[in-house]
Write the structure tokens for this entry.
Amino acid sequence: MADATTTTKSDQAVRLDIYRMMQEARLFERRAQDLFLEGLVKGTSHLALGQEAIAAGFASVLGTKDMVFCTYRGHVHTLLRGAPMGPLMAELLGRGNGICGGKGGSMHLTDVSSGAMGSYAIVGAHMPIAAGAAWAAKERGTGQVAVCFFGDGTTNIGTFHEALNMAVVWELPVVFVCENNLYMEYTPIGQVTAVEHPAADRAAAYGLESIVADGNDADEMRAVALRAVEQARSGGGPSLVEAKTYRHGGHSRADPAKYRPADEVEAWLARDPIPAYRERLIADGVDAGELGRIEAEALAAVDRATEEAKAGPPPDPASLETQLWSDGGSAWRN
Amino acid sequence: MAELTYREAVGRAIAQEMARDETVYFIGEDVAAAGGVFKTTEGLLDRFGPKRVRDTPISEQAIIGAVMGAAMNGMRPVAELMFSDFFAVCWDLVANQIAKTRYMTNGQVSLPLVIRTANGGGVRFGAQHSQSIESWAMAIPGLKVVVPSTPTDMIGLFAAAVRDDDPVIVVEPKVLYASKGDVPDGELVDKLGTAKVVTEGEHVTLCALGAMVPKAVEAATKLAADGISAEVIDVRSLVPLDTATILESVGKTSRLVTVEENPRLCGWGAEVASIVADERFFDLDGPVVRVTTPHIPLPAADALEDLAIPSVDRVVEGVRRATG
């Protein structure tokens, strides 16, 4: 969709930033995986390895006041919205210097100050919440756009349909982005869904354009994002984007993903969004040395974040019964 | 001072807060053009316009999700859930999202929102439109729950709920919508977490909530004729719970009876009984008695529903057991 051969200088700067974001996301996720294997990330984690182009493409167009809502597979969206990497890593490690003080964890990452409005661990819950945030933006005239990322499995739960209908009827500035990685947890989405494109084929039911995009092409994702975000911001109402992509790993840390055919995995690994983008940038005249510097800086940033996280203290026991209520406490009686 | 029905008090309460604060919006099913299925919100659309008073589709998850998202982004929204039974279709948004978000984000997100809902039995609607859900709500950390029993309390507690920075569920006993009471003129703002002694007494404390309050008061009048002086407390707020008022009363009377419309298991009165047993055990002179609906769904037939919900006679009988 984006014409990679006619980039202007400013476009080139944006594309280098997209490359930086994807590198940071990839290395952050790999580090999270390593730290899980070391026993430092506990519980579970749902990695977005392979899906970085969608987050980076959208992140490259959003303004500082825009709001991103994502799922339990939310490390990358939270990072690329601008959450500080060290405290983000510390949250995965359950440290007191985590962005949520250790109360959120891998599936519940929020950094309101950067517009990362939460990772929602119940499938579909954030669809109407994002619509509501967009409703307030519209009524208050703030010009903000809400972007709501969700998986293909979400298209079969009620909130998906309730939120889309209300967002269209109320003409809300919200962009719904389905990251279709072909599997709802462990089951192929096609096996349990009435239509081929789980999101795009439902768009017509809500009077929306059917949009299927290559979620592994960061330029295309940026172009799709620009159009949808601008439509929302200018009063044109919501969009529903289906971005096709692929998880490099299983659903969660407990899942080796043996249910996926080897040839399918191989084909999608060959379409890894990051090397493909690197090749394209070089073909467009970007100096490989510059990309190497970006890669080295990304690795250094992840190393620093890891050290900051590991050095963090466990949460203060006194924080256990805090921040249930707006007075900072948790008292339920006098 | 003017005499208002509870129904009229709901409308006045919403209007009072919408007129005061332009970030207060009100949405729900049939609440705008139709004025609500219980006619509690008539006139609000005309007064505040279609942006601030808005009809929604029958999409309880979208309604509750929308007020949560709006509360995250600068609004103080109010949602009506037409019947409290419908919490069951949007419980994820209420219990997993709204209730937990402030804690999970370590205080980054405030949710100043109100969900008001018609609750309870006594109107022959059957099991799916008559439940008392206040005990469900109070069991979830992160939700405040109030149950006004008079027109004045409806206005004052609703105003306090809207002005609170945390999510508050305002539970309206639908059987009371036609009840009347004198309401002071001017702005009314009450306080969450405060119970009220509505009848003073010496021999037994009756803790009642919502539609059970007038029944407890009537029972106290009957008991007085037999020389038993009952103190009636309108609990009003389940979260926060005004245990100080309850414990002080039991300290005086040494006996406790709870009067609850909910089914037996895990009703709010069980928590009150537990606190009293723990903290006033040596003041008690008799068993703590809970008068509740049996542990059944509410039947539709008037003859059966009247047997199920605590009656004045059952409250009197409960007091006799407690004062044995």
Remarks:
- Chain B has two domains: 2-183, 196-323.
- DSSP finds eleven helices and 14 strands in chain B.
- The longest strand of chain B covers residues 76-83.
